[in-house]
Structure prediction request, 370 residues.
Amino acid sequence: MKTKHSGAKYSAIVGIGEKLSKLERETGKKYLKLNRGIPSVTSIDLSEIIPMIDFNSPKIQVYPPNSGLPELKEAINKYYFHDSTFVDNIFITAGGINALDLVFKTLDVDKIVLPEFYWGAYANLLKINSIESATYFSFNELKVNANKLSGSAVIICDPNNPVGNKYDDQMLIEVIKVLSDNNVVVIWDSPYRRIFFEWAEDDFYVKLAAIDNVIITDSFSKAIGLSGQRLGFVHTLNKEFNAELNINILFATNGINAFAQILVTKLLTTEIGQKASQKFRDKTKIDMIKNIQLLRDKKLLAEEFYQSSIPVGIFVILNKNEKELLEAYIGSVSMAYFTQKSKEHGEKFARVCIAVPHEEFKEYFDRLLA
Ligand SMILES: Cc1ncc(COP(=O)(O)O)c(C=O)c1O
Prediction:
């Protein structure tokens, strides 16, 4: 038997998690697992939502429509796009990673340009799809060189994984418009944004969706804490791209889990669901703000990453390395893992997830400096 090797690597973050569990078993000590990438201040309370779902209905028991349940796509149009787009431009996927993989399969570009520090899965998905990658170091660089990037695509993640910083929305829209006008496709992959902005006060997707060469990939893993449900979506205005994406979704998935789609529809559209979602986000944000303040007070935040942007979460960068944090029983991920161009520099820093309960966070960081 022969195996095809794409060159993609199994996630180092999963490896770190396994290492920490082993250390816990061997030492009997509990580690604070800030290497993880999910908000875990609290979990969303689904107890009042589940009774609303009829498991004996064909909607749950048979194949869902290929591009997603119409009621979920309508809810996404309403709550993410303020009804400014068409449901035909929205495609439901098995989470954000599946959305990105499908986009990479469907898009015909010379290369895809990634930020200096990026979520490792981008590079692995590009390898699997045999797409060249390159690096950008700032939004100004993208703006100034937009004409040279014609025929390529750029990924923007804001708030960013791994840096956890947020840039000014107006500046981002300006850069994206310049890129689009120069025939550069912008893949907007920002599944953390919705944690920080409630739909009614956020018209960013309305503005984004109106720009031609923009593909939005999003996920319900972070915004409502349901990474187990594997649900996300893709949005573009491009009809040719959408027709091909629809074919690729069919043969990659045969439709996306109907239960997950109904569950998320209820969370988006019912008053009880909206309250449960908002409570999850509010609790998450309160502890993240406290955790950032604590890190700032203790001078542990790597301020050089937050000169022209602000740290918001769900990650931040610390000026300690992975080994130093491990000695204080704190799990983290070295920044060297998130970059191709700045590995040596990255080794001095570590990414931690700050979306964890403040009291526990404080206990470990007090001990680190004791
Ligand atoms: C930047 C970014 N995009 C997309 C995803 C995909 O999330 P999921 O596949 O859980 O929906 C993640 C998950 O960590 C992420 O950090």
Notes: The chain is about 45% helix and 15% strand. The pocket of pyridoxal-5'-phosphate is lined by residues 37, 95-97, 119, 157, 161, 189, 191, 219, 221, 227, 232 (CB under 6 Å).
